[in-house]
Structures are given as structure tokens and as C-alpha cells.
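Justification of resources, computational component.

The compute hours requested in this renewal are based largely on the per-chain cost of generating structure records like the one below. Each record pairs the submitted sequence with a full C-alpha cell output. That output is archived, and it is also reused by downstream analysis tasks.
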Amino acid sequence: MKWALLGSVVLLATGAVLVAVSVVQGGASVALFGFIPVVSGSSGLFLLGVALLFVGFLSVPFAWAAGESGPAPTLREEVPEPPPSKSSVPASRSGGFGGLVLIGPVPILFGSWKGVSSQVRWALAIVGAVIFTVAVVAVLWLLR
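The structure output for this chain reads:
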């Protein structure tokens, strides 16, 4: 198991333990909304646990992708490109498209990114965690 993936799992486990301890100590409560469990709390321990869970959820896909080695397997045969003719313009730009969609705490990355560095992946995870933390603090402040 790679170190980054192990670190993500540790973040998830630590966050879950902190939320559970907060529930046991009375700093958070658990309710069922239909069949979905809802945990709400007002303690700092609960907020720290939720933040660690969020960072763990964001870091797992990045850690998983960082652990992959080698090119991705393809299902079709590679066709050699024909030699460039004098009339064709060489492609000077290489680009792509992509994005990050958060559905609850689950990040979904899509696109045709090639060679995205691990620094960019971690920066996305940190920015997502900061946005989530700001949103949680704002909601808690509005509800007080």
C-alpha cells in the first residue's frame, strides 16, 4: 500500500473516531432522516472530525491516482501517425479539459488531463477542504 493512500485512510479513520467520540461525549447527536443517518454537533471535536473526514474523502482519489504506475492500458491498437505534410500546420498547443464535481463529500474528477502533477492534485484537495470548512462554519454561525 502506498504511503499517500495509507495517509488518506488514516485521515478517514481519525475523522470517524473523532465524530464518534463527540457523539459519546454529547457534543453531537445522531438522527435518522428517512434511512439516511444525520450527525450534527456543536463541539470543536466534531468539527475537527468532519474536516478530517472531508480531507480524507478528497485525498483518496488523488492518492489512488498517484499510486498508479505506467501508462493506462488501451483497448484499441495504436495507429501510427502519418508523416506531416508541408501543408499541414503543426499543433503547437496541447490542452485538455477537466473538472472537479463534489457530490456531498465525494469528489469526482473528469477530463483529459495529462501529466497533472501531484502538487496540483493536493492543491485541489486543500482548496476543497477549505471551502467545505468555511461553508460549515458559516452555516453553524447562521444557525446559532
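Helices lie at 3-25, 44-67, 118-143. The chain has one domain: 3-69+98-143.
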